[in-house]
Q: What sequence folds into this?
């Protein structure tokens, strides 16, 4: 009877569930893309390897401009970290700096991401060369004017012509192209197709204009040694900076696991926040259902009176209208789940097409259960009042209603 009652007013039923569909769709999109973002971030962090630690200037958790631009790491720290007596488990100690740079070749220009690197970056960042060679130790010590281009930078500046051996300019200084990277695309922190890599000492001296280091990556040969190596690194840099109290540290050491936990917490908080905002439309949809159900009760007053006259109990009328509300919201929930996952899948494709990010599609089962559960509960809650109003009608008064 509930289905028959809804079928009698198809257009009204469709418009009634539209608010629920929109709300559930929004919740599903947020939870799905939140899971996708977390999966992407964790995958990118795994690419850095479980054997790596990152030394970052500034105080942990302080994202102010002063902390981000702090100059607490210098070459003396690199020398101390490379000393085996200080950090015996360190295999590679890789400093680097970064910033923007306009690369010019004849009349062509490209706004690249500058990476001031060292030979170890090739291994740490898993870079492959399409042609030429990478930076060597002599380039670092001599502050050589050499450069390695990302694939997109090379294509924009040189087209199909050979780039290796040619000279480009950054800030009116010429740099000889010694290599071109294989296309790697977007990672968590940088798009390697859009980078221009020079020796970090060259970047400091001629491009960025400072002598400090923005990041240091330290690798070990086993994940089991990572915790011990991190402690050695902290002790070494404290000694280099004459720091006695760890609370006074002007740096911090982060492992991929630490970063993963931080990013996971951030994405989870954002997902909950955005899902809560999206859920507001569900409340609006619930109010709409209550309104329409009240209209339906009024329109069907004579029907209610007739059913009661034929023996229907208050509970029968109550459950009939309550089931109608739950069917409406449940159907809206199912449609919203299908629409939400479909739009999320389309969004991951568009992100890949336009941003070059291999964003994994996620269809969390919990999201589907949440969608159906929320929509059903909303139908129950917002359907109780109209259903009770219907069940309490007097059959005599209902039959006389015009």
A:
């Amino acid at each position: 009877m509930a289905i028959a009652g809804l079928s009698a007013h198809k257009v009204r039923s469709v418009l009634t569930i539209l608010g629920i569909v929109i709300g559930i769709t929004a919740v599903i999109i947020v939870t799905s893309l939140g899971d996708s973002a977390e999966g992407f971030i964790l995958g990118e962090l795994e690419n850095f390897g479980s054997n790596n630690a990152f030394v970052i200037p500034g105080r942990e958790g302080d994202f102010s401009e002063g902390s981000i631009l702090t100059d607490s790491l210098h070459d003396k720290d690199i020398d101390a970290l490379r000393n085996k007596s200080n950090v015996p488990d360190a295999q590679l100690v890789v400093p680097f700096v970064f910033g923007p740079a306009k690369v010019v070749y004849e009349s062509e220009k490209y706004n690249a991401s500058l990476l001031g690197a060292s030979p170890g970056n090739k291994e740490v960042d898993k870079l492959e060369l399409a042609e030429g060679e990478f930076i060597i130790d002599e380039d670092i010590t001599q502050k050589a004017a050499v450069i390695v281009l990302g694939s997109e930078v090379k294509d924009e500046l040189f087209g199909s012509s050979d780039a290796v051996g040619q000279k480009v300019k950054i800030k009116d200084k010429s740099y000889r192209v010694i290599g071109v990277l294989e296309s790697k695309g977007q990672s968590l922190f940088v798009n390697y197709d859009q980078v221009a890599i020079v020796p970090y000492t060259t970047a400091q001296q001629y491009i960025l204009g400072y002598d400090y280091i923005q990041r240091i990556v330290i690798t070990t040969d086993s994940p089991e040694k990572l915790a011990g190596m991190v402690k050695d690194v902290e002790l070494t840099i404290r000694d280099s900076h004459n720091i006695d109290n760890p609370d006074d540290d002007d740096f911090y050491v982060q492992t991929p696991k630490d970063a993963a936990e931080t990013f996971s917490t951030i994405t989870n908080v954002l997902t909950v926040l955005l899902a809560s905002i999206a859920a507001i439309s569900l409340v609006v949809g619930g109010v709409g259902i209550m309104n329409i159900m009240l209209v339906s009760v009024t329109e069907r007053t004579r029907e209610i009176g007739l059913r009661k006259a034929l023996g229907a109990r208050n509970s029968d009328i109550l459950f009939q209208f309550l089931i109608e509300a739950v069917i409406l919201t449940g159907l809206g929930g199912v449609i919203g789940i299908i629409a939400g996952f479909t739009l999320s899948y389309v969004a991951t494709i568009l992100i890949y097409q336009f941003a070059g990010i291999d964003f994994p599609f996620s269809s969390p089962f919990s999201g589907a259960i949440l969608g159906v559960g929320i929509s059903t509960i909303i139908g129950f809650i917002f359907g109780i009042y109209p259903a009770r109003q219907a069940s309490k009608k007097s059959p005599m008064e209902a039959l006389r209603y015009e």
